[in-house]
Design brief:
The strands form four sheets. Strands 5-4-13-14-15-12-16 form a seven-stranded mixed sheet, with helices on both faces. α1 (about 15-25) packs parallel to α9 and α9 packs antiparallel against α10 (about 330-355). β14 (about 210-220) and β15 form a beta hairpin. The longest helix is centred in the last third of the chain and has 29 residues, at about 330-355. The chain has helices at about 15-25, 50-60, 60-65, 90-100, 110-120, 165-175, 245-255, 260-265, 310-325, 330-355, 365-370, 375-380; strands at about 5-10, 30-35, 45-50, 75-80, 85-90, 105, 125-130, 135-140, 145, 150-155, 155-160, 180-190, 205-210, 210-220, 225-230, 275-280, 290-295. The mean pLDDT is about 95. It has about 400 residues and is of the alpha/beta class. The chain starts with 5 loop residues before the first strand and ends in a 12-residue tail after the last helix.
Length: about 400
């Protein structure tokens, strides 16, 4: 590392905290500014493929993750009404052997807590709550971040991990509204004890049908079943992660689907069904200026159809840390951006395309589509084998 820097991070989400943990480990001074009054994450599951889990393992977090995560055996792509399996991606030992790190399913709040603990262990006062960002000003020597309440922080570098509605991105590129894709996602957690015994193996299932699909998998050691139902619903107008929606609407959206799908929906807490709009943004021409850079959804918000949104933010943090060890800040940010911008753009584009892959109208259309594009082979060639800890920079 060329020297010790003071690094400001806007946002204490998964991306910001992963970056903070890595930068603290590398010996930097880190200040994390979070707008919320308390730390927490939405109650949803996320998937950590090898390209992300190897970063978290490098941070020393494997024991904490394995205490709460699930290692799925495989992904099954099933037709919505017959449960016919049209494709399988091996996970479990096969994934770890091929790509060098485990594949985990984990409850998002559990991972968030693990990262908070890692940051606090390295620097107990690093995270500042009630610290929403208003704007920034940079000069040749550093950057000053101004908060909504008038306070300001000075640092050598500002990393914006403040999400799809990023204030820093808006200042850097203009305040362009996010684009609603016409798709929404239902989010429901079902406790195991509400489901029949031996309801589902330790697998990931993607139920696919006309104009919608549903992904389901176990988290929290198998105590909770996470399901996310993605539906084409262009009339939806609500925004936000915590918008409750009527259980009956969820039931109606999946009318006629397989009995296993009905069992999950019937077991859901009818007062805890959430539905959020799926938004994206156009590709940015650049992420960085001299002393400021973007990370995660602030740089490349993506649809959830490849389960890589959080993974990309984790990759970002690892690559940024390495870049800062190689050069002064302006040059390091160029290395970071050059290593990340095309890969993340491909993730965004292919995630959008996968909405079509999962939403065909007939069984034969699904069979033909998966025969033409095998996700297991395709992802193995370029996605999961990526190593943020060793990928060439410069």
């Amino acid at each position: 590392m060329t020297d010790r820097r003071k690094i400001l991070i806007a946002g204490a989400g998964l991306g910001g905290l992963t970056a903070a943990a890595g930068l603290l480990q590398a010996g930097h001074d880190v200040v994390v500014l979070e707008q919320a009054p308390a730390l927490g994450e939405v109650g949803a599951g996320i998937q950590l493929s090898a390209n992300a889990s190897r970063v978290l393992i490098d941070l020393g977090l494997k024991p904490a993750i394995e205490a709460v995560a699930v290692r799925p055996l495989r992904t099954e792509f099933r037709l919505h009404d017959t449960a016919e399996i049209v494709n399988v991606i091996p996970l479990g030992e096969a994934h770890e052997t091929r790509f060098g790190a485990p594949y985990y399913h984990i409850y998002r709040p559990d991972l968030h807590n693990i990262l908070v603990d890692a940051v606090h262990a390295a620097s107990p006062n690093a995270i500042h709550l009630n610290s929403g960002v208003r704007g920034y000003a940079e000069d040749a020597d550093g950057v000053t971040l101004t908060l909504a309440d008038g306070r300001s922080f000075r640092g050598d570098l500002l990393v914006a991990g403040d999400g799809i509605k990023s204030v820093v991105r808006a200042q850097m590129h203009g305040d362009e509204p996010a684009n609603f894709t016409g798709n929404v996602a239902w989010r429901v957690m079902v406790p195991r004890d509400r489901l029949p015994e031996n309801f589902m193996d330790r697998i990931f299932v993607n139920w696919m049908g006309p104009r919608k699909h549903m992904v389901v998998y176990w988290v929290r050691g198998g105590d909770l079943l996470n399901f996310v139902g993605c539906v084409e619903k262009p009339e939806w107008r609500e925004t936000g992660w915590a918008v409750r929606a009527p259980w009956q609407d969820l039931k109606d959206d999946y009318a006629g689907w397989h009995p296993d799908v009905q069992t999950m929906i019937d077991a859901a807490d009818r007062e805890a069904c959430y539905c959020w709009a799926l938004n994206n943004r156009p590709r940015l021409p650049y992420w960085s200026t001299g002393r400021v850079t973007l990370l995660g959804d602030a740089a490349h918000p993506t649809l959830p159809y490849m389960a890589q949104g959080a993974v990309m933010a984790i990759e970002d943090g690892a690559v940024l840390r390495r870049a800062l060890e190689l050069a002064d800040i302006p040059a390091a940010l160029k290395l970071y951006e050059a290593a990340r911008i095309d890969r993340t753009a491909r993730i965004v584009d292919e995630s959008t395309e996968h909405a079509k892959l999962y939403h065909h109208d007939t069984a034969q259309a699904f069979r033909d589509a998966f025969a033409a594009k095998d996700p297991a082979k395709d992802r193995g060639l370029w996605l999961y084998n990526y190593d943020p800890l060793t990928v060439p920079l410069g």
